[in-house]
Structures are given as structure tokens and as C-alpha cells.
Design brief:
alpha/beta, 7-stranded mixed sheet, 3-stranded antiparallel sheet, 9 helices, 14 strands, globular, binds 4'-deoxy-4'-aminopyridoxal-5'-phosphate
């Protein structure tokens, strides 16, 4: 039976070839037994972790003065680890708020010091550089590069020209390894991997080495980046299976042509769905301003919101699953991560057209309106 196209926001779809490789290797990872049974300090797992780090370094062209760490605990743990490690002797951090995930990160940072809001948006667009004001006294400036819930994405990182000594921190959880990145612009990049790069269990942290060692003695070992750096991220038993799946994902991305190819595919997929929304304004509407539209999470609504559950149900019956919007914003959301084939986006656009024919709406569409 054909698998459905899975538009879930994360955990999310994985390439079929990766799932099949997991299936074929699950009893024997090459050493006679399963990776699920292997010691984390043995040659197989340590070799895999080192190779995973090397592949990430090569894919993102990460300079040598950056370390690559694998931390358990997912995104929420990074919300705490960032201030615990980067505030140093300072008491002020800065956050650019563009939606629910940057807001959640800022809220967690308040446990550790004062927080300056450099921009406070409502989740419909990302700010221009002239709208962001960073206090030069701050220890770091954090933002979320792709807001998974609201569907807004920065095209380029915020400019730090006015405050060049302030480290820029990016949450790339939902657009990690989906396009080339100039890592040298950042103090720290982190990403939970369960969207573009594997299954839940780890966050990848890419950290400029001069930012190591700033955590105070009170910071627990497991929350101190230096401990991960010194131990090659194997201070204790790491989530081996999650690391294994990311290792397969890194190879899959390489086979597909690397990050330029991932970006081309991301633009192709998202354009197909945005074009469907824009071509049927009497039926569908998006709340995100066009310049801020995410390549990863397409958030939209039916003009007749009562039809939303019908759309979700009929789409699932047609093999397009997990299209309901996040509970906080409602509507619909199509998550189109690395592993979503363009055929999935085409199938969704065709379904949207078909649905519009079967449920014609008689509404007047406002002429102006930049969404
Ligand atoms: N940041 C972003 C951009 C996210 O999308 C998410 C989860 N969807 C998180 C942080 C939180 O991640 P976790 O569930 O791993 O804590």
C-alpha cells in the first residue's frame, strides 16, 4: 500500500530510502547486532558520531573555530542552555520575537536574567533590519529563523553590523540543513532534528569556540556546552538511535546534492502550495506577508472556517495527512521539510483545487491586502 504524504510539523516525514535502510540494518548494524544494542563508547557508535559531525561540518561548510555538539532534550532544553551558557557575567539577553517559538525562548531566558525585546511581532512577518534595535550591552541576540507555528521565515539573518561584538544565536529547528548558511555570521546555531534531519532526541548545536567556558559553576554538567565539547557529546549515554537516524539523513542529503539541492526543492514545494492559495483567493487565505513566507511551513485558512475539519478529513482520505493547523492559530498547515517529495506538494495543490470545486464559496474577496 502506498504511504500517505505526511505534512506533520515534527516529528515528520522521513525519506522512504532512510526508513528502508533502518529496516534493513535494525537487526545488524554491521557488527553482528543492532545499533540499539551497541555500547555508546564502542567503536561503532563513536565512529558514527564522529562521522556525523564531519558530515554536518562539510554540508554547512562550518569553519574550524566552531564546535558541533549533540545535546539531548530537544528545543526546550536549548531555550534554557543558551542563557545558562552565554549570559556569562552579564545579566541581559536580547530576543527578536516573530512567533510562538521565539516567544517561548524569551520567556525561558527570563529565568536567568533580564530580557530585551529587539522586535515584537505578531507572527505575520519578520522584521527588516531597520526595525530591530539591539542593546549593545547585551550578552547575545537570539531569534528563530523559521517559526514553525506561524509560518514566517527569515530570508537572511538579521544584520549585526551595528553591534558586531554581540553573538547572534539562531533557532534553526524547522529549517536546519534546508539551505546553505554562512555560519561565520553566528555565535551559535541550534536545531532540534525531528523535522529536517531525523527523529526526536537530540539538538545539534554549532557553537563558536570562544563562547565555550562562560557558564558558571552552578550550571549542571548536563546543561554546560563545555562538557559536551570536551566529551565529544558522549559525557553520558546519548540517544544513540536519534544520532543514527541523523547520520542516515546526512548521507541522504549528500546523495540528493547537498544544501543547494535542498533549497531548490524547498522553494519548488512551497511555491506549488502558495500558488494554489493565491490562485483561489475566494477559497483560501494566508496570513503571512509574502516576503516572510516560510519555505517549510505553509500556514493558511479556508475563508469559510467551518469547512476546516471537512478539509482535514477529506485530505486524509485522499492520502494527505496531518494538515490541521497548530492548536494556537487554527486553520491549516502544510509542513514541507527536506524529506517531502515535490509530488506531495503537487498532490496537495490538486486536492485544494478539487476541494474548492466541490465546496464553492460565494464570498467577496477584498481587492487590496498584502498577504
Ligand atoms: N523551536 C522551534 C522552531 C520548533 O519548531 C520547536 C518544536 N516544534 C521547538 C523550538 C521546540 O522543540 P522541542 O519540542 O524539541 O522542545
Amino acid at each position: 500500500m502506498a504511504r500517505p504524504y505526511n505534512f506533520a510539523a515534527g516529528p515528520s516525514t522521513l525519506p522512504e530510502s532512510v526508513l528502508k535502510r533502518i529496516q534493513s540494518e535494525i537487526m545488524d548494524c554491521g557488527c553482528g547486532y543492532s545499533i540499539l544494542e551497541a555500547s555508546h563508547r564502542g567503536a561503532v557508535v563513536m565512529g558514527m558520531i564522529r562521522d556525523l559531525r564531519a558530515r554536518i561540518r562539510s554540508l554547512l561548510n562550518i569553519p574550524e573555530n566552531y564546535d558541533i555538539l549533540f545535546c539531548p532534550g530537544g528545543g526546550h532544553m536549548q531555550f534554557a542552555m543558551v542563557p545558562m551558557n552565554l549570559l556569562g557575567a552579564g545579566t541581559l539577553s536580547t530576543y527578536i520575537i516573530t512567533g510562538s517559538w521565539s516567544k517561548a525562548a524569551a520567556k525561558e531566558a527570563l529565568r536567568f536574567g533580564r530580557v530585551q525585546t529587539a522586535y515584537n511581532g505578531s507572527g505575520t512577518r519578520v522584521p527588516g533590519d531597520d526595525e530591530i534595535e539591539i542593546n549593545p550591552e547585551t550578552s547575545y541576540c537570539a531569534y528563530c529563523e523559521n517559526e514553525t507555528v506561524h509560518g514566517v521565515e527569515f530570508k537572511v539573518p538579521p544584520s549585526m553590523e551595528a553591534t558586531p561584538s554581540v553573538p547572534l544565536v539562531a533557532d534553526q529547528s524547522s529549517n536546519f540543513l534546508s539551505r546553505p548558511v554562512d555560519v561565520s555570521k553566528f555565535g551559535l546555531i541550534w536545531a532540534g532534528v525531528q523535522k529536517n534531519f531525523g527523529v526526536p532526541g537530540i539538538a545539534v548545536v554549532i557553537l563558536r569556540r570562544d563562547l565555550l567556558g562562560l557558564a558558571s559553576n552552578e550550571v549542571p554538567m548536563m546543561l554546560n556546552y563545555s562538557v559536551y565539547s570536551r566529551s565529544e557529546s558522549v559525557m553520558n549515554t546519548p540517544p544513540v538511535f536519534a544520532l543514527y537516524v541523523s547520520h542516515l539523513m546526512a548521507q541522504w542529503i549528500e546523495e540528493k546534492g547537498g544544501l543547494e539541492a535542498m533549497n531548490r526543492l524547498a522553494i519548488e514545494r512551497s511555491t506549488i502550495v502558495y500558488d494554489a492559495i493565491d490562485s483561489m483567493p475566494e477559497m483560501y487565505t494566508g496570513h503571512v506577508e509574502k516576503d516572510s513566507r516560510s519555505r517549510m511551513n505553509v500556514v493558511f485558512r479556508l475563508r469559510d472556517e467551518q469547512l476546516t475539519p471537512v478539509f482535514v478529513k477529506e485530505a486524509a482520505a485522499a492520502g494527505l495527512v496531518n494538515l490541521a493547523g497548530h492548536r494556537s492559530v487554527g486553520g491549516l498547515r502544510a509542513s514541507l521539510y527536506n524529506a517531502m517529495p515535490p509530488e506531495g506538494a503537487v498532490a496537495l495543490a490538486n486536492f485544494m483545487k478539487d476541494f474548492a470545486h466541490r465546496h464553492p464559496l460565494n464570498v467577496t474577496v477584498p481587492v487590496a491586502g498584502g498577504n
